[in-house]
Amino acid sequence: MKVALPSSPFNRADLFEAAGFEVVEGRVRSTEDFIELMKDADGAQVGVMPLTTREVMEACPKLKVVSRLGVGVDSIDLDAATELGVLACNVPGVNTTEVADHAVAMLLSITRCLHDAIVSTRQGQWRENPRTTGNYVNSVRRIAGHVVGIVGFGNIGRAFANRIRGFGPAEIIAYDPYVEQTVGDLYGVRMVEFEEILERCDYITIHCSATAETRHLFDSNTLGKLKPTAILVNTARGPIIDGTALAAALEAGQLEAAALDVTEIEPVESHDPLLRLPNCIVTPHIAGFSPVFLDECPIRQAENIIRVLSGQKPHGLANPEVIKTIAVMHETNTGRWAGIPGFSTAMAV
Questions:
Q1: Please, which residues have CB within 8 angstroms of residue 236's CB and are 6 or more apart in sequence?
Q2: From CA 80, how far away is CA 58, in angstroms rounded?
Q3: Is residue 300 annotated as part of the catalytic site, yes or no?
Q4: pLDDT tens digits for 248-261?
Q5: Which residue is catalytic, options 12, 146, 237, 330?
Q6: Cα separation, 30 vs 27, whole angstroms
Q7: Which residues does 134 contact at the CB level (< 8 Å), separation at least 6?
Q8: Of 68, 102, 141, 285, which one is the catalytic site residue?
């Protein structure tokens, strides 16, 4: 079997070769490049861009599994993958630590006014009164005694809860319609409705997936319900927040500040109003990265493909309904899984 890998210094072609797979690597800058690389591959590694669309998967009739870098799978058309019999795999938990750390760091950067303090010190203002420079003494805030809200209580949301608890918040609450209170109890978190997050929280951090359900979860209406002293942090996915509405809300003082590692359009346009607002900080979608992540993620990403094409359970499967599609293909001896022995459609995922 053949595996396609878009060129990357972190690829682990050695793992595929040791498992007996043929490996093809190539530079991918467009959808056309993507299709050309994968057109006769059985498995492929994919990233954020180019998108793994229906067009791409239909043009690759042998493709059975794609393995996504990281946790998010919003770059893959999951409905099309399920219909076509392509397993869409990811690597849950591979950078939970990094993203949770980054979210806490962004929140602290704002509450402790770190950027302004660093800039004013570089400008020589320490020789004056550093405590009044930039109104620091009146702007800096503590987390202790305030209400922290978490939107999305999966691995990263739970890791954030563990970290922020040490800062002594008055309460940690979370919104996730798929998580029971019994899980929240394990982390000292009370599960609530979304409206309570909006109305009560001093600090809100987003850790949910990007889906049709969560697109523009924070829009002009919901942003208008926040406290004017609220701080919003997003290290999840850009489209969860309506960027235009957020810029308007920040400018109007509907919330105090925002910290974003992700934006609706990436890379963010240089003229985006969010970049000129003094109460908004933006980092370039780097929350999940570290040397440890870059060592471990390519291994698990490769293992997903090797396991699936060997009839074993992958680390993560974003479209478990595809198993039913594959079962039909086996019964009818049609489609990309026709004649492929050894794949168990009963595997636990």
A1: 152, 156, 206, 207, 208, 209, 210, 262
A2: 9
A3: no
A4: 999 999 999 999 99
A5: 237
A6: 9
A7: 113, 116, 117, 120
A8: 285
pLDDT at 344: 66
Q: What is the DSSP string of 154-171?
A: SHHHHHHHHHHGGG--SE
> Which DSSP category does 269 fall into?
P
Q: Out of 32, 128, 266, 269, which one is annotated catalytic? A: 266
pLDDT at 235 over 90: yes
Tokens 């198993």 map to which residue?
A: 323
The mean-pLDDT minimum among 132-141, 213-222, 302-311 falls in: 132-141
Separation of alpha carbons 26 and 158, rounded Å: 38
Q: How far apart are CA 172 and CA 191, in angstroms?
A: 9
Alpha carbon distance 220, 87 (integer Å): 37
343 pLDDT higher than 70: no
Known catalytic residue at 285:
yes
Residues in the chain: 349
Token readout for 99 is 């993203």
CA 241 – CA 246 distance, rounded (Å): 7
Q: Is 237 one of the catalytic residues?
A: yes
The β-bridge relationship of strands 43-46 and 87-89 is unpaired
* pLDDT exceeds 60 at position 134: no
* 173 vs 182: CA distance, rounded Å: 13
Mean pLDDT on 47-60: 94
Q: At 204, is the secondary structure helix, strand, or coil? A: strand
269-320 pLDDT, tens per residue? Answer: 999 999 999 999 999 999 999 999 999 999 999 999 999 999 899 999 999 9
The neighbour count for residue 246, using CB atoms within 10 Å, is 26
